[in-house]
Amino acid sequence: MIIQREKEDSPGLFFSFSFSSLSFVKTIHLKKFLLYSAFISLFSGLLCSCTTIDLYEKTVAIPEHAWKSNFRPSFDFTIKDTNSLYTVFLVLRHNEKYNFSNIYLNLYIKGPGQDSVQKIQRDLVLATNEKGWLGSGMDDIYEHRIPLTGAQTLKGGNYTFTLEQIMREDPLQNVLNAGIRLEKKP
């Protein structure tokens, strides 16, 4: 902004302003703003296109925080989109007093059109000596979301997943919740 005094010998003070440089500065800031906005919109669009869709998640509270081997929570869901990729996760919550760095599970799967149940035994790591608990923690509660399957297409229809803990300690102490999470890649 340029300020000039009009008449030096006049009793009043009169100034004239030139806004040409000010409008130039506003144009630069507006161009930067539009450029940043376009970049953020493009980046957000790319980020959203790479994310997953939480299709299903259900957990069951473990009675008295002691998971007996005969307590087998079961989870039912329906697949309609047969072209997408799905990943199945175990959701497990325990407190800091959980005595092991892993958990052995049997996963029973009954898919659409199957007469028999498929059994998969898994040893899932919950902690390491270097990193401690691998799940996210708040106060003394830890939650793990561990992939049970890789990304794969599924047949359309109803699925039943059943969890069974097969640790030597029975009942397995300090387990709060167990469940299944299904994610879909768009």
Topology:
Blueprint: E1 2-5, E2 15-18, H1 20-49, E3 53-61, E4 66-67, E5 74-79, E6 85-95, E7 102-110, E8 118-125, E9 127-128, E10 132-133, E11 136-138, E12 141-147, E13 157-165, E14 172-173, E15 175-185
Antiparallel strand pairs: 1-2, 3-15, 4-14, 5-13, 6-12, 6-15, 7-8, 7-13, 9-10, 11-12
Write a short abstract of this structure.
This protein has 186 residues and is α+β, with helices and mostly antiparallel strands. Helices cover 16% and strands 48% of the residues.
Explained architecture:
- With 186 residues, the chain is of the alpha+beta class.
- The protein folds into two domains: 2-49; 53-185, Jelly Rolls (Sandwich), CATH 2.60.120.
- It has one helix at residues 20-49, and strands at residues 2-5, 15-18, 53-61, 66-67, 74-79, 85-95, 102-110, 118-125, 127-128, 132-133, 136-138, 141-147, 157-165, 172-173, 175-185.
- The protein has a five-stranded antiparallel β-sheet, with no helix packed on it. Strands 5-13-7-8 form a four-stranded antiparallel β-sheet, with no helix packed on it.
- A hairpin with a 2-residue loop joins strand 11 (136-138) and strand 12.
- 13% of the residues are buried.
- Residues 1-10, 12-19, 21-25 and 45-49 have low confidence and may be disordered.
